[in-house]
Amino acid sequence: MVELEHLVASQSKLGEGPVWHPQEQALYWLDILQGRLHRYDSYSHGHVVVELGMVVSAMGIRQNGGMVMATKKGFAFWDPTSGRFDFIDNPDPDESDNVRFNDGKTDRQGRFWAGKMGGSGSNSLFRLDPDCSTHRMENGISTSNGLGWSPDNRLMYFTDSDAKVIYVYDFDPQTGEISRRRDFAHIPDDPREGLPDGLAVDSQGYIWSARWGGWKIVRYAPDGSIDREIPMPVEFPTSCTFGGPDLTDLYITSAWVEVQPGKRGEQPMAGDVFRLKTEVQGLPEPYFMG
Predict the structure, then answer these.
(1) C-beta separation of 32 from 71 below 8 A
(2) What is the C-alpha radius of gyration for the chain, rounded to an integer number of angstroms?
(3) Is 197 a catalytic residue?
(4) 20 to 30 A from 177, CA-CA: which of 51, 100, 108, 170?
């Protein structure tokens, strides 16, 4: 059985990118469009909001302290003490408001991956290595989204939301190369099903995918079949990550940005964070090694 809890009334316009910090036993997430970083302390239950001053869409924990982030101005390191950004690289720079990085995640070898969205719909997925070199890993993506790796580290999952597909690749953990892309799950062309958004992989190799506009989280078996669906009290769940002392808590972010005007009262928790008590463990959050 699973139990869903309304955890933090963060009211994020576009809550995204949840990351569990194992040392701090704290959850971090972003409000992309309002340029805010949120932190929830699982010990004190305190909720802190930091104004970042720019669009930041994804992040990973750095081994050397602070965060690696995907920002509107490219990849950057962020220091929580000073609030300073040290910019690294901005692949495919675009000054328009329509093109930006979207979801991202750190692999177990300490490399940070993030892809772009918007514009012409021909975007790329990039990999930032610990030596701060940037590599284009995939092209022709409309809206880059959820990323994750199988427990044996031989498969990588990557979501293109507008294409309504979660891809799976063969993954070489030593080189970081991906190959042999194929469809893992294709979402039916039905507005009630929503779009695939952020995802998390559990220790059994199952994939938990948030359904933007679909009012639910979907758990997929390793063969791509649907194992279960968890109804949500919000229309736009955005992403999820495992955390908690034993990694059995699934934290889920959400958004209100596309809730129809005049209807936010029908889903007052839109933009908040939820916690799903599960019977399975997630995988530990890797650190960016640079």
Answers:
(1) no
(2) 17
(3) yes
(4) 100
| Residues shown for the chain | 290
| pTM, rounded to two decimals | 0.97
What does the pLDDT look like over 133-152, one tens digit per residue? 999 999 999 999 999 999 99
Q: Which of 31, 103, 107, 197 is catalytic?
A: 197
Please name which of 279, 233, 251 lies closest in space to residue 42, comparing C-alpha atoms. 251
Q: Which CATH code is given to the segment(s) 3-277?
A: 2.120.10.30
d(CA 99, CA 119): 5
Q: Distance between CA atoms of 226 and 214, rounded to whole angstroms?
A: 15
Quick: pLDDT tens for 177-217. 999 999 999 999 998 999 999 999 999 999 999 999 999 99
* Residues near 200 by beta carbon (within 8 Å), at least 6 away in sequence: 148, 207, 208, 239, 240, 241, 242, 250, 282
Order across the sheet with 144-149: list the strands. Answer: 144-149, 155-160, 165-171, 178-186
* pLDDT digits 0-9 by tens, 6-56: 999 999 999 999 999 999 999 999 999 999 999 999 999 999 999 999 999
Long-range contacts from 48-54, C-beta under 8 angstroms, 24+ separation? 49/10, 50/80, 50/83, 52/78, 52/83, 54/85
Tokens 């220091």 correspond to: 79
Among the listed residues 253, 281, 209, 288, the one whose alpha carbon sits nearest the alpha carbon of residue 40:
253
The string over 245-257, giving b where at least 16 C-beta atoms fall within 10 Å of a residue's C-beta and e elsewhere, is: eebbbbbbbbbbb
3-class state of residue 42 by DSSP = coil
